[in-house]
């Protein structure tokens, strides 16, 4: 059966646990809605580390982005999305300081 090639969870040989460094998605989506902060796309959502340090998995360092905008952040098109990200981060800081 072809389903044996598409195993998910612990049955998949590529399965990673939080100890393997994959807990950042859970951390990000525990705080932020699972949708791109730029366009609102919610079908496939990736997590971007703001400081570029993939070991810094604090919720303040993680933002949800769609694959297109995440790729743009890591490309020559960064200047098109960075102002939106900066504004979102600034709004987050204001909201968190008021709580």
Describe the 3D structure.
With 99 residues, this protein is mainly alpha-helical. It is built from 3 helices and 2 strands, in the order H-E-E-H-H. It has helices at 24-31, 67-73, 78-97, and strands at 46-49, 62-65. A two-stranded antiparallel sheet has the order 1-2. The longest helix is centred in the last third of the chain and has 20 residues, at 78-97. The chain is globular.
Q: How would you sum up the global shape?
A: globular
Strand line-up of the largest beta sheet: 1-2
Radius of gyration: 16 Å
The average pLDDT is: 82
Distance between the termini: 53 Å
| Main sheet overview | 2 strands, antiparallel
Discrete helix count: 3
Would you list the SSEs in sequence order as H and E? HEEHH
Percent of residues in β-strands: 5-15%
How many β-strand runs?
2
* Helical amount: 25-40%
The SS-based structural class is mainly alpha
What is the compact description of this entry?
This protein is mainly α and 99 residues long.
Question: How is this fold's topology laid out?
Answer:
Blueprint: H1 24-31, E1 46-49, E2 62-65, H2 67-73, H3 78-97
Antiparallel strand pairs: 1-2
Q: What keywords describe this structure?
A:
single chain, 99 residues, mainly alpha, globular
């Amino acid at each position: 059966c072809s389903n044996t090639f598409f195993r998910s969870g612990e049955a998949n040989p590529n399965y990673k646990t939080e100890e393997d460094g994959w807990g950042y998605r859970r951390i990000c989506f525990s705080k932020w809605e699972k949708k791109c902060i730029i366009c609102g796309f919610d079908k496939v959502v990736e997590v971007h580390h703001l400081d570029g340090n993939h070991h810094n998995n604090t919720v303040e360092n993680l933002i949800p982005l769609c694959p297109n905008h995440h790729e743009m952040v890591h490309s020559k098109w960064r200047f098109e999305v960075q102002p939106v990200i900066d504004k979102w981060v600034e709004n987050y800081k204001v909201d968190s300081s008021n709580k």
